[in-house]
Structure formats: structure tokens, C-alpha cells
Amino acid sequence: FLEPAFAAVRPALPGSGVSVHGVCLQLDRKGWLRLLQTEGVLDGAAAVRLQSQQACLQDILAEAQARRPSKGRGYRLQEVHVEPYTAVAGGNSPSRAYVLTDIDGISNGSGSDPTVKKEQDLGPATEASLPAQFNRGGFVPSERYWRLLRNGARRHGLGVDYRSFLWSLPRFSPSPLGVAALVAAAPALLTAATKSASSRMAGNLRGSSDGQANQKWPSVPSPFSAVQGQVKLGPPISDTVWARFSSTPRTQLLEQVREHVGAGLQIVEY
User: Fold this and answer.
1) Residue 73 carries which DSSP code?
2) pLDDT digits over 86-130, tens only?
3) Can you spell out the DSSP letters for 111-167?
């Protein structure tokens, strides 16, 4: 994998105290259409239709909120309550914003529309509370993607504790020799993939229903395993700080990572 996973915001369990920090950006109608299409919230046909109809921004956002991710792919748009660090001059601090999430919010009991009432109720949900297609415990972002999050948080002055949380997250660092090794190993990888597909087919015929089998980290045949990269772990932070930003304990997350990547991928602590 070069890009194993990407970030998403999820509703936290009520009362968990989990929050997510970020930056509020103001987009115009054209900017919203471009963002919603590139992030998979709206497909190309919907974006073209809304553009040709000269739909107003309110209608565009309403349609985007009504859509759901398809087969675990793409984001959905959700409106949430936000609390700025400091008041904006003139008293125009935003109190509501939109986030991209990959799972429905927590229902407020007043209908089918999911809402998140408070910022502290927004964050990663526990593994047991997620539908199977959203259960991605152990997936880690690439170091390139992780650096975007870390550097963006630092540049925009997000809270120190939140930046420490980002710094402590595991991330995958591909080997500089990975591309060359992939070309050299292509015949062996093709053979292994064919055998794996045959095994999965036989398992299905026998009634096997192991839905996690296809989500394991791809193995690389020897002698190319040494150049497949490594998972880096940032410095640990206190359990108290971690619990402010994640419902899953760090030790449990690292266990999921180790199980997901297997013994063939080196895990390095910094």
C-alpha cells in the first residue's frame, strides 16, 4: 500500500468527552461543488445536474447531506456544532459547520435525520458500535498523508494536546525501494494473488464468511519483504490526553495495527 487509509470524522458515543479539532473554511458555491465531487459525496452526474440547474448553495448542501456512502466508499456531509478557540472580531464566530464523515451521526430521537448536538460528542466511535463495512480497526495512513494533518494542525495553531495526539498516531512509511521491488516482484505477486483468489473461492464454496480476510495487509514474497516499508509509532501520550480525542484506547489501537499488518511488516517506535 502507498496510501492505506485516509482521515474521517465519526460521531462519538454520548458522554464520551471525545472531540475533534480542525479549521473552519468558508467556501462559495463553486468551491462546495468541487469539494463534494472530489470527496465522493456527490457523483459526477449529480454535480453536473446541480450546476446546470444553477442550484443555490443551500440546495446543494441539502442534497449532499441526504446522500450516504456507497459500499464503504466516499464521505457524507454532516452539520455539527463547533466552538472556536477564540471569538472572531465583530462577533461573527461560527457556531455551525460541515464535516465529512463516513458514517451516520447519532439520532436526536426527533426523526430520521442524524445530528450531533455538541462538539464533544463528535469523534471516533468504538469498534463495537460501527457497522461491519465501517469497521477498519488497524488501518493506518501513509506518512505523507499523516504529515499533511500534523503540519496543517501546527500551521493553524490547533491545541497542543491535539497536536500531540496526531504526533502519536501510527503511520505507514513506504520504502524508497518499494516501487523498484514491486516491479521486480510482479510475477511472484501475480502468482500469489491467483492462489489467494482460488483459496477464497474455495472458502466461499465451503460456506466460509470471514469478512475480514480481504482486509489484511498484503504480504510480499521473500526476498522483497525487506523493502515493503514500516509502520512508525509516535511518542506515547498520557491516557487522559488520548481519551479526549479517541474512544479506542491507544493500546487497543496498536494491537489492531499489529494484527492488521502482520509479522512481515516492521513496527518502529520513535
Assistant:
1) B
2) 766 556 777 889 998 876 544 333 333 333 333 333 444 444 444
3) SS-B-B-SGGGBSPPPGGGS-GGG--TT---BHHHHHHHHHHHHHTT--HHHHHHHH
pTM, entire model: 0.71
Q: Which residues are CB-neighbours of 249 under 8 A, at least 6 positions away?
A: 239, 242, 243
Distance of CA 102 to the CA centre of its chain: 8
Are 82 and 94 in contact by the 8 Å Cβ rule? The answer is: yes
Sign of CA dihedral 129, 131, 132, 137: negative
Residues 6+ apart with CB under 8 A from 260: 137, 138, 139, 140, 215, 216, 217
| CA distance linking residue 92 with residue 126, whole number of Å | 35
Return the SS3 of 30.
helix
